[in-house]
Write a structure and sequence with these properties.
The protein has 310 residues and is an alpha/beta fold. Helices cover 41% and strands 15% of the residues. The relative contact order is 0.17. The structure holds alpha-D-ribofuranose (RIB) and calcium ion.
Length: 310
Amino acid sequence: MLIDCDPGVDDAIALLTAMSRADLVGITTVNGNVGIEHTTHNALAIAQIAGVDVPVHRGAARPLIAPTIDASYVHGATGLGSVELPSVSRDIDSDDAVGFILDMARSVDDLHLVAVGPFTNIALALRRDPTLPQRLAGFTIMGGAAGPGNVTSTAEFNVWADPEAAAMVFNEFPMLTMVGLDVTHKVLLGPIERDRLRAARTPSSLFAAALLDHAVTVVGEIRGWVGAPIHDASAVMAVLRPDLFSGRSHPVSVELSGSLTRGMTVVDQRVGGRDGTDEAPPNAHVLFDALVDDVVTEIVNAVIDLQAQD
Ligand code: RIB
Ligand code: CA
């Protein structure tokens, strides 16, 4: 597994989950929740807390065309709330995330690429090597929604932050797995999971509990929910345990010019097109539901197990 991310609170829990349960060959970082310097520093800090020596390659500092935005109102000014981080003792392996993604796609068999931030790096990789889709065993994104958005009423943040990149990804991958808000808004980690993590008292589980302290508070204030949607870890779990999720394949396009809908993933759920025949072939397996309690338990167990034996 190779994770492209913008840590970010839920990205951090996704990375810990992958470090525990997958063969994580590398992390690439992208501008998104916060700026590239913070997302990259956070990736290094997360690996250090977890005690995992995984390559970290820095990626795009800006979207392809869209103005640079952030989600610091959710993730805090530096991206991981006010959680105390260790002073990072190592540096990035390169500032060429795109080159690393392509190198891994060419050299690692059965590689699953998982993108859980804006898709700038993935779009740039497609531009450099359009054969990327054929070199991967699978490509899973946290992004989009068939239903309502989050950053706007119609758009989900990762797609909205770089809609041109998202459009390239949906247009050029013949098939991807879309773990969108339709399912991630059902995978909530709250006080019970936070307390379970804190009681495990490993460096990773204490770190994840502190992240949940922040996330539960912020989401409670913004949405009034008791738990926080751990979007990105759901995408990782969809690769590790696809049996826990259900969805359907549909044609998906990204709106680029709507004044109210820019960044919207338009999921065509009609059975056939206008006249009953498919206007466009399905290009995304869109997840709509999950065995939520099992997904939550698997994420928490993965984080606890990461250093339980240490
Ligand atoms: O909309 C949720 C997505 O946006 C998640 O990846 C979260 O980390 C933010 O990047
Ligand atoms: Ca993210």
